[in-house]
Structure to design on (173 residues):
């Protein structure tokens, strides 16, 4: 591996451990691994581009001129650039306009949401008030019925008292 023996690798790791400490060494190894992985993926992508764009084994000339391919790509992108090239101030104005439109749309959505919440709260208050009115009406009705029952009971009691008083008077007479 890179012409380094096991003992030499051990010494390098030992000095790395002593210099950087046990906390930073794993993080450094992780970063190094990610960098190597990115390098390999870039290398694979480059090989893929070379195989598809530069090398064609089925043609008479298996190797294409990469400069011609680049010039074709550049010509295609020049047409797009010419058609839609804008200055910095135009681009900034467009971004500002888009940002203002997004902000206005967000504010409109927020107002709409607040209005819906306000309507829902008003409906809830109306429903609670109607429920309280129904409860109060039911309570008044129950009180009226209780009062009527009490009056009837009082009338029956008075009638019973009058009947017992009349019976007492008959016994005395």
């Amino acid at each position: 591996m890179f012409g380094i023996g096991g003992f030499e690798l051990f010494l390098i790791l030992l000095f790395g451990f002593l210099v950087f400490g046990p906390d930073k060494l794993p993080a450094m190894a992780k970063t190094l691994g990610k960098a190597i992985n990115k390098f390999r993926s870039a290398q694979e992508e480059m090989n893929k581009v070379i195989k598809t764009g530069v090398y064609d084994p089925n043609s008479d000339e298996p190797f294409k001129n990469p400069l011609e391919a680049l010039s074709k790509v550049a010509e295609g992108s020049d047409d797009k650039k010419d058609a839609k090239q804008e200055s910095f101030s135009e681009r900034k104005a467009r971004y500002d306009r888009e940002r203002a439109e997004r902000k206005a749309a967000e504010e409109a959505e927020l107002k709409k949401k607040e209005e819906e919440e306000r309507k829902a709260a008003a409906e809830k208050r109306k429903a609670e008030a109607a429920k309280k009115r129904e409860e109060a009406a039911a309570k008044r009705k129950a009180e009226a019925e209780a009062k009527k029952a009490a009056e009837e009971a009082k009338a029956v009691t008075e009638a019973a008292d009058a009947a017992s008083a009349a019976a007492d008077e008959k016994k005395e007479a």
The mean pLDDT is 83.
